[in-house]
Specification:
Low-confidence stretches: 20-29
Number of strands: 0
Number of helices: 9
Oligomer: single chain
Mean pLDDT: 85
Largest sheet: none
Length: 157
Amino acid sequence: MKKILAIIMAVFTIFAITACGGSDKPKGSSGTQASQTQPAKPKTLQQQGLEDKSVSTEYRNALKKAIRYATLQHMSKARVYKQLTSPYGEKFPQDAAQWAVSHLSDIDWKANALAKAKRYQENMSMSKERVRQQLSSPYGEEFTKEEADYAISHLPK
């Protein structure tokens, strides 16, 4: 009797899944309604650069590396360029690195400066003025004065 009930339940479950089409969408929903009512967002310069098959793989690879350095390590634009071209770093040609950096349209450089500033303040117990100096120094992070000022003004008290 238990086996017969198990078989009936299995058949019923398979029938129910098949009848519903195995979909979580309500009947009559094609899933395209949202795309029909919402215009497609234009691609950013950064997205366009990643997809641009008219430029060499070297350029697109430089952009991919630049995105990683900017987003994961919160580097400044100048430091990203130096890392891409450094003989001790990525060794990309200057033109590829410049193209890559000029396509970093999705990076919030002020947010990067703030992230670095927080690390210096918390991990190295630096004063705000010393953090500002480190952020904007050509021997440090090389953020612009505006980016460094933003970071300092948004540090926790």
